[in-house]
Design goal:
The protein is α/β, with parallel strands linked by helices. Helix content is about 40%, strand content about 15%. It is built from 15 helices and 14 strands.
Amino acid sequence: MADTSEQRARPGDQPSEQHDERRDDLHDGQRDERPDDQRDERQRRLAAWRSADRVLWRSSAELRIGERLAALAADAAEVYNLDQWADMYGNGVVEELEQRVARLLGFPAAAFFPTGTMAQQAALRSWAGRTGNATVALHPAAHPEVHERDAFSVVSGLRTVHPTRQPRLPTAEEVLDCDEPFGALMLELPLREAGFVLPTWEELVDVVAAARERDAVVHFDGARLWECAPHFGRPLDEIASLADSVYVSFYKSLDGLSGAALAGPEDLVDEARAWRHRYGGDVFQQYPAVLSALLGLERELPLLPEYVAHAKVVAEAIRKSLEAAGAGWSRVHPEVPHTHQFQVWLAGDADALNEASLRQAEETGVALFRRWFGEGWGCPPGISVTEVAVGRDGLSWTGTDVAEAVADFARRLGG
């Protein structure tokens, strides 16, 4: 039986809102009104991560404004002629990025959006007008259900149903058995809250076919689609070709400043542009974000397969080392990562785990784990969860390096 968004989630079903990477930062224009101790803790974390000599990945949030601007100014000429005029309302360099994304994903058209939240609302309400059904089938841990303040229903008049509550994407059988009609099936690839998990290629093909059998369109929430190709063993355009439309992000894996793109048929993208305007997303000039996105496509996208491969080495070393260190019940999830990101589950209080992680970074210059949270989708009670990513900085870590870092972290828990 399908689960609808109107039904109240069971306790423990959904992770804390803090689990979204944005929860640690204020929204644009907001004054920081958090208690002093919370502001101080955030500054301590950023200082520790920034000063660490050994990290598995670096976040752009660790850079100061001047550093990010200087890097963009120094590098942007590699991907675009800076003697061209600045963009105005989506022309110029914005069109260049849109055309490149459309080619990469194998679609006739693509449109740049300031956020993925806006892009997916524009896409799905446009599909709703075509199918005559405003119901979207998706996972209850998908980003719109957990991190967007009910924007689908409150802003766009969409309704959601959940073919499954299992910590994975729905199967073809579950899609076929959904007891309510729906106009669109949205698949988040990978499903971040459940551990950056993906189906097999055969399972993905089957679930798409099941949606077609239900006369539904298929939309991929591909915020992290860029790193899915190694798992599926298929190029990006072949993966995207299964869907009727695809959204991709430029800051999550490509290290852009911000922004997203929606790719699909020309008529859908044209209508989505109209909704972008209505939503207030027709921004006067966007060249800083767009140039950073082009740099991400040029520099980070080719390296993602290497990140994915090395994440498997790091994950195995963490799993074995936590067991050897006697750190208590633990799990790497998934045991073999599907992308370059995965979760680590560990018995213990999140505050104590965070303190051990911070002291390790401050005292040794090694930042192994970032933030721990006291709950996660599918985690048993009393288990804390953290997310691990392997990026450019992590490629130099050997299994031995990881084992030594885990052993030091475990000793700090014992102390």
